Input
Amino acid sequence: MGTDKVPRGVRGVPDGSNYERFGSVTLWQSLSDLLQVDQITEGMHVVWFESGAHADFYVGGDLSMLPVTRCLPVFLSGAVTARKGRPGPFLSGMSLGPTLDTPYIALGDPTLDLSPDLLLGWYAGRAGQGLQTDLAALLDGIAARVAREPLLIGGSGGGFAAMVLSELMQGPASALVWNPQTDILDYLPSIAQYLAVSLSISIDEAAGMPRAEAAAALRAGGIVHQLPAQDTHHLRARRLLYLQNDADWHVKSHLSPLLDRLDLTQLHPGRWASSDGERRHVVRVDHLAEGHNPPSRPVLLESIRGMLEASAPADTIGDRLYDRGLLPSTPSHRLPSDLRNKAEHIRRRTTVVAAVRATGEVRPYLTWNDGGTRHLLGVSLDLSDPRSSETLTTRSGRHYLDPARALPSTLPVRISDGLGHDIFTGDAPIELTPRKLSFFILGRNASRDAFSFLDPTQVTLTDHVSGRSLADALRDPSGLPASMRTAATQSDVVLWDLGDENLDDDGQFAAFHAALPRWRDLLTETGLLNRLVLVASSCVTQAVEGRSPASSASVKAAEAGAAIQRYVAAVQGLLDVPVLSGCPASTDANTKHSWGAASCHRDDLSCSELARQIVDQVNTQRSPFDPVRDPDTLVRVPTAQERSPRQEMVTQPAKVQISESLPYRITVEVRGGGIASMAFHLYEGARRLDTTPQGLTRKHTFTVRQRGTFRCRAIIQPTHGPRYGVSSDPLVITGEVD
Output
């Protein structure tokens, strides 16, 4: 009967549900009423159970036309993440079903009717309601009416329901699932909300309920929360095809525990099957999609069409996905395996290091020592070891060493296989992570020249502000103050060069002296005071070839040393800042400087000396987790092009190359000419993970925390013209390197 003939809330149409989009709804007062009819017609149906619960299901097509060799597809839904209080029913399969050229059923989850705030219910219902048993009986009855085996189809929470209902049904059933939960108590994002509704307790009580207590309460309420539903090592489904994304957290949290509970045989990495000769139950792990996303529509359609043929083995359907190019040919060592029986073999062939960043964050990583077969492994800090609690603090899920404590030589680590099984534990030696030093330069001449003598593979220039005296630069809030606030998050060292001051002008000195308190306040506000280095290098007195250098200011070179000292004294009277004098006042000028011979442009020997002083000062100011820089490797004589990058012209757009240089380390490099500076932005999908400041270096290495598909976008500043962006090809990271 249609809803227009049944008063809402009186003769059984569920309150709080909205059936308007389905038109007429056929209402059944009991399951026996439904199963007594000659034919279950196309359209929306509501059937009431004796418990007071109801089920919503939609019939697409004429069930009597279902071919005799086919199963009846039944779609089950997962989480309704965009519900926002909307009333049900919520049905999956309404777009896939019509493309199958066969009748189908879409079954809603009655659990979601218990609360408008509930997003996921697993078709489990309220404790004591017996909903799972009622739904299994409904599917058994429909299957008997059409004389066809049902194929239960669902992903995530719908996948869990498909396997549970196939367990509880009396007749045969097949199941096709992807990324399912296998124990709803292990689904941390939503389980507290469900427990509160199911057990009629507050959300705070549910969130604080111990796992064992929650499991006992669900069992007492007749709710199957864990697979297999029966106390066996087997699933009752006649056939099962279980598809799992390799980068989904469900691999370790749901698939791995299920494999431990079932009698399945591992055939290959990422592939398991039941021990019977027919391999009726098959689990396949591969790169089906990103994270917990469902497989692509073509993969789902091919899988459904294969499983609809009642005689088709589940194992061959999985192979068909590869044969038709719908799944990637992922190397076996990038797929999870149970490696618990290979612990000693793996220990001998691997090296684990605890890499420490300058911030003190610790990230352990593993490398293989030789060739041969590799395996997918995970490495993490062993937080159960007392030494970890003594030396580490945790913030936002990341682990840091305490800078106030002595640096340990090793940290305890735990090595696991791709399924999350612990393989072995051990001590990983500490390795201070080499990184590029980032410089902000204020002022011109000596500092900028000396910076070009630092190896560009080890340093980067975040910004260079020059051409104005300190007093003048501080007057413009959008100028120096804004640049300093940006430098606070991007720069390790601030080189402050006095080259922009008119040294013999008493009026400018007075303005400089008056501006120092504002300068101190800005340095304190931005946290850059302890990163500041003052470069007070005197001007040169003679040219390399015996010619007198041109003075860049009205003061003569011979008087520069005395003039600059009053500036240094004024600074030291207010700021505790290291001062680099650079080279002696008798140093030579560089007559071949790209901007001409001048008293502010020194020869190579003088610039090298100042560069070495800068490195030595950086070592004294370094973080306790930063490695000591060797001046002999960091300081070198630059090429002509590095001295005068403006002469390089753009011939073609830059290109970005991306590769996995070490496990979980992504190296990106810009190729092309006419580039003045660049910045790197690392993305996973649409989410930006990390960035570098605009600088001179063309190569950078990022560290990522998990597997996924990444790309890098470089922001290029050409020597001529506006900035432009260019992106790399996508890179799939698995934590292994071929």
Q: What stands out?
A: Residues 1-11, 540-555, 584-599, 645-651 have pLDDT under 50 and may be disordered.
